[in-house]
Predict the 3D structure of the following.
Amino acid sequence: MAEMIPVRMPKWGLSMQEGAITHWWKAEGERLVEGEDLVDIETSKINNVCEAPTAGVLRRIVAQEGETLPVGALMAVVADPAVSDAELDAFIADFQANFTPEDEDGDAVSALALSQVDIGGRTIRIGRAGEGGAVPIVLIHGYSGDLNNWLFNLEALSARGPVVAVDLPGHGGSSKAVGDGGLTSLAEAVVAALEVSGVTKAHLVGHSLGAAVAARIAADRPDLAQSLILIAPASLPGTAVSEAFLTGVIEAQRARDLKPWMEMLVADPAMVTKDMVEDVLKFTRMDGVEDALSLIRDRLVGGQDAADLREDLADIPKALVIASHRDQIVGAPDEAALPPGFRVVWMDDAGHMPHLEKAGEVNALIIEAVG
């Protein structure tokens, strides 16, 4: 019997339990290219497109526009034209008869096993996913974010091997003490957390502020950095962090004040949901967060950390940079001013969050880069 491949409701983030089908980009009978836009899904946290998981023919759409399905439920079936309708019907009936929605905690491959590690009186939250003996991919989020910012990347990356996501000091579930708020201080905290966790070699993947932290680690600890991938990076030549954005996130008191700043992050503002805004607002109102973010903002805007990092880029043999000329938060790096071993891939159909906006392309680039 020819292979039939289920297209299932993805799990975007630790808390996602269901998603609503809002638009199919392909019709039954159309041929799919792996990674192309297939179906738009709306969740309480984010709205985005689910990409085709494989090449083939979209033989059957099971979930219609307007339907809400639990994570893992069957949305469609990809199969060879030689598969008969009767075989498709039997496959779908068997899937539906045996499908059980995951429990509230979830057991999807994208779920992170969360823990706290102590680094000299401070705690750092880390999440782990994936198995095997490969060098782990370490994910470092950006300003005012947390490890949930990698919700569209975890499944693909953890299918390759171990993944470790880190909450920077002052962010997420980590302690709110950030030292002087500088890149060196943040980098030392991440290195300490990795060492406590038994990670002695890593593929470092950072976004925005996290990219600057990852580059700082790679320059200072070349023994730790197996490879370096920088997504919408701050502090590279040609970039300039938006002080208005950094301050706007800190000072917003209501969702309607914060939403315009959140919409700056992406090329399509429709991606930003009410719950996404509310989650960031709740975080910024936690005790100690405003002071922590203010310290980090002041160091970013001050520019000395960026100047020091640019001086040290020559010590990093190579890096993959994923950037966009439409980035409203840090701008576009000056490709000509980067060291010879740095390769830049432009994603100008995205904004500051290409790992969310164009997750399939970014995941493929990361997996290629880490070998």
User: Anything to note?
Assistant: Confidence is low (pLDDT under 50) at residues 104-110.
